[in-house]
Predict the structure.
Amino acid sequence: MTQKPNPLNSIKVNGPIPAHLARSVIEETLRSAILDGRIPCGTALRQQDLADLFGVSRMPVREALRQLEAQALLNVVAHKGAVVAPLVQGDAVETYALRILLESEALRLSIPLLENEDLEQAARYIDEMETEKNYTEIGRLNRLFHMSLYCKAPNQRLLRLVEDGLNEEERFLRFNLEAMGLGKLSQEDHRALLRAVENRDIEGSVKLLAHHLNRGVEVITRYLGSPEALNKKTSQ
Ligand code: NI
């Protein structure tokens, strides 16, 4: 039997971490290692291993893991503890159906309250996506663009759910955007959506958003069923 390399070996800790920063340093370090795939899906993270690695007690580790769980990056599994979540949790079609409901509502509530600065910021994110070549960065810009349109929705709990969905998508896009060839089409959707929002056309905007997210679910479903995705899954 060959021994699998320990994914935690990829994490470098620079010197002692001041106690008051421990939670956020651990959270940020693990977050980026999960997002860029150094700690693969299905990896169980043991509190004691992490406490040893970061040279801290288990308390900040536990708090950091709780934050990552809230961001849908970890699942707590009986007898295994915190396990890195799969790229798409459950059924992609159901996930997107729910996102369409939540994001449409956030958009509806936000449009009348958006200010010019919000719209200018949204336009800048689209421009940045246009020239950006790095898929990790494109995933981040996509999330920021969408959030900039929803940000004025007064319901904070709704916004948190919306952001969880976008975080999940961002993580998926990082690994698969190139293979899915979604780039150009998404940009046309983004521009059309922003135009409708600028015109304060609520129903038109919601329609365009649903169209955009449905395109996403189609591409992801097709991709997940493709031989390339299956190879990737088994090699992880
Ligand atoms: Ni998008």
